[in-house]
Write a structure and sequence with these properties.
Strand content: 25-35%
CATH topology of the largest domain: Nucleotidyltransferase, domain 5
Number of domains: 2
Order of helices and strands: EEHEEHEEHEEEEHEEHHEHHHEEHEE
Shape: elongated
Distance between the termini: 43 Å
Helix content: 25-40%
CATH class of the largest domain: Alpha Beta
Number of helices: 10
Number of strands: 17
Structural class: alpha+beta
Radius of gyration: 26 Å
């Protein structure tokens, strides 16, 4: 979860979603007080499974289930948290399995920004659900398939057809399946797979609403499978923190649905980021050239190049923002493995956020900037994320 990249929507007293917000957890915390917070997390990190357990005692169920499922799971059961669902009439108990360290990380980030979650729910279980029907929706490079009230799968795109055929062949014939509802989020622009080979009625529906607004309509008020159970339950967590203050109670005025990390709304978030970066580029351009008019970003590079050439023709490059951009720009553009995300200029300092392939390139970039860019470089942060290093540099013009 990146605390700087989250999406959230606030539901009114009738349960209708309002505006979708894109920003950081720090910004989202302003909406949390007085609201019931439901956090949607990506199901790629969660295993939704089931087992037949003879006992009716929920405490015994919680103790027995990890050992019953142990052979199905790749991780050591001591490293996993098991959230129980509702036990069915046939003795089947559904559950969600997630790594403890990942759940604790999510909770740590929420707590850091004073967001107290009432529910943490796998995003699959926010898809619409109807009796005897399955729901399918595309995520970034994957598909979310909901097959029941507490069951579903996160499936790689190239495995979707095979997975559906396998599930259809292995399902219980006593449980009729009337159709597969395929929800097309048109903003994603990707063609849906050909599902004609499936022995099932496929119903496709185009969703014009914002994905998070659409999802929030189907989030149950009291979901059967809430990851916040046992030692992670809200009661346990709040008890540790607020036990001296338990006599005081508060009314929950509304609901807020918060989606963290990657998920269905990533497209919208990145689209918003791109627009924000465009706006920032225009702002920097106007700051560097007061009195000029804003132009499309695609034109600004040409304008800037022409103005820099004119300045260089005059004998020297100006100092301040313009000087740092002129001197450091070639270093960034000529260093392989470097992707600029955004820049910010304030109080004579240029702050640059970028993605780098590895730490060696970061060290090399710092050295090249110091040697040829005419600036002093400080590395404010460098955090590994996936196969990249998210870095933040601060450039200060070196005094002559």
């Amino acid at each position: 979860m990146d605390p700087d990249l989250v999406s959230w929507v606030v539901l009114d007293e009738t349960g209708q979603p309002g505006q979708v917000y894109l920003g950081s957890l720090d910004e989202a915390q302003e909406f949390a007080p007085g609201n019931k917070v439901t956090v949607l997390v990506p199901s790629i990190h969660i295993v939704l499974t089931s087992a037949s357990v003879p006992t009716q005692n929920r405490q015994r169920l919680a103790k027995a289930l990890p050992y019953i499922l142990e052979d199905q799971l790749a991780d050591d059961i001591d490293d996993l948290h098991f959230a129980l669902g509702v036990k069915r009439d046939d003795g089947t108990m559904h559950c969600a399995v997630v790594r403890k360290d990942l759940l604790e990380y999510w909770l740590e980030q929420l707590h850091k920004f004073h967001v107290s979650a009432h529910v943490i729910l796998p995003d699959i279980l926010a898809l619409p659900m109807a009796p005897n029907e399955w729901s399918l929706v595309r995520e970034d490079g994957r598909y979310l398939l909901r097959t029941g009230e507490e069951s579903g799968y996160s499936v790689e795109s190239d495995m979707l057809l095979d997975t559906l055929q396998l599930l259809l062949a292995s399902r219980d014939d006593a449980l009729p399946l009337t159709c597969l509802n395929v929800f097309d989020l048109t903003a994603l622009h990707d063609p849906l797979p050909d599902l004609a080979a499936l022995d099932i009625n496929v119903v496709q529906e185009v969703v014009d609403a914002d994905p998070l607004v659409w999802l929030s309509q189907f989030v149950p008020e009291k979901p059967a499978l809430n990851l916040l159970q046992g030692v992670y339950s809200r009661r346990e967590r709040m008890g540790k923190m607020w036990r001296p203050w338990l006599p005081t109670a508060a009314m929950l005025a509304g609901v807020i649905v918060l989606q963290l990390v990657t998920g269905i709304v990533d497209y919208y978030r990145f689209k918003s980021q791109a627009q924000a970066l465009n706006d920032e580029v225009v702002s920097l351009y106007l700051a560097a050239y007061p009195g000029t008019k804003a132009a499309p970003v695609t034109m600004l590079e040409k304008h800037m190049t022409n103005k820099l050439k004119a300045l260089k023709g005059g004998g020297s490059v100006a100092g301040g923002l313009l000087g740092m951009l002129a001197n450091s720009g070639p270093v960034f553009s000529q260093t392989p493995g470097v992707t600029l995300r955004n820049v910010r200029y304030r109080d004579g300092k240029l702050e640059v956020n970028l993605d780098i392939d590895n730490l060696q390139i970061l060290d090399k970039l710092k050295q090249q900037l110091s040697d040829t860019g005419g600036v002093t470089v400080d590395i404010l942060s460098a955090n590994a994320k996936g196969d990249k290093v998210e870095s933040r540099l601060q450039l200060t013009e070196r005094s002559s």
